[in-house]
Write a structure and sequence with these properties.
Layout (H helix, E strand, L loop, with lengths): L26 H21 L2 H8 L11 H4 L3 H15 L4
Helix pairs in contact: 1-2, 1-4
């Protein structure tokens, strides 16, 4: 077999314009994405802008037992805790 018939992993690409469809993603991941969007929206409102919200989302938070909001919103209970924490921040009771 000559070298032109062999493929290398570097030759494999799906391109930058291809994105996964909802059918390829798990329900848990889709739920996480939805929760993430709602939390980031609320955080941007509470914290003042989207950049601060994105930073906050990925850092450990005292009111979440020093877990990051992104790690807590993975289930319904955690999502509720994060939303309640943002409400406490909004009113200065954290």
């Amino acid at each position: 077999m000559h070298s032109s018939a062999q493929s290398k992993p570097d030759d494999w690409s799906i391109g930058t314009s291809v994105s996964p469809t909802a059918a390829c993603l798990s329900r848990q991941y889709l739920a996480y994405l939805e929760r993430r969007g709602m939390v980031l929206s609320q955080a941007a409102e509470v914290l003042g802008n989207r950049d601060l919200a994105a930073q906050w989302f990925n850092k450990p938070a005292r009111g979440l037992d020093y877990q990051s909001p992104c790690s807590v919103v993975t289930d319904d209970n955690g999502y509720r805790r994060v939303r309640e924490y943002l409400e406490r921040i909004k009113y200065g009771v954290y």
